[in-house]
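Researcher: Please translate sequence to structure tokens.
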Amino acid sequence: MSAPLFETVLYARYGGLDDAPEEHERAVQLTRAELERTVLFEVLVNNRDERFSVDHFGQPGSDQAAYMERYLSPDGLKVIGQWSQYKVPDVEPLRMIFYLHFVDANLPLRTSYGDQTIPTLTPTPLHLLLLAGYDPIGS
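Model: Translation complete:
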């Protein structure tokens, strides 16, 4: 996580933090925990049908849902739609990326078609970071 992103999220969540040092330290720890468990997922949905909804993506026992979803070209190199357009592109297969907060890599990823095992988490490829800059909630 970059220092500017960390500072942006910290300020968005906790304001100027002119409070006591222990309150500042608690805010820093909470922000670090949030960002360390925010994951950018890339998924490929084949044979999509009427059951599909991006709202289904999350984890069992968590109220977190897909955030800032973007739909990509088949080769994954350009954005062809995004969350703000409220329309899923009519392409097959559907390639999509989204952030999920507070991910537990030991739990499955919930989807419209059942739970899927989360593969070993790896650093986000540069081309996806360029397509999917992170905007903190509340910023």
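Researcher: Any highlights?
Model: The chain has a mean pLDDT of 84.
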